[in-house]
Amino acid sequence: MKQSYKILSELLLAGIVCGMLLGILAGTALLPRLGEQMKTEQESYSRYQDAVQMKAICNRKPPELVRKGADVWNPGETVLLHQVFEAMDEEGNQLDIQVLDIQDAFGNSRMEWYDKAGHKAVFLKRGTYTLKLRAADGQKKPTVRTFMLLIDRRQGGI
Q1: N or C: which terminus of the chain carries fewer CB neighbours within 10 A?
Q2: Cα separation of 151 and 126, whole Å?
């Protein structure tokens, strides 16, 4: 039994040494080739039409969303938002404005005072209201801005 273990251990040791030598020889010849890159023609994808269009779309300026004036409204007065705010894209085309939220000075939402169909709002109480507006151009590039409106019944505002 002792003799069989001795023979098997010698065979195992010889196999390990042989495997290591073969690995070293194969590694020195094979590994440098594995790291080499294939020599292929370089393709410039930036000349493709869809890449040019995508670059033009991504480089577009977002639409401008501005307030036309600094008026003060009375409580209960109808505020036509398209007369107060305007949005224009890079080419100067008028864009539709979407009202995302209307909040009073305490952070309470007052979207119930906004008529989406008529694009107007009637503020029932005096105070300052924050309007969060959004406009997007034909390429769906958005602009979101926040404006404040003053609703005050007193002559000349606060």
Answers
A1: N
A2: 5
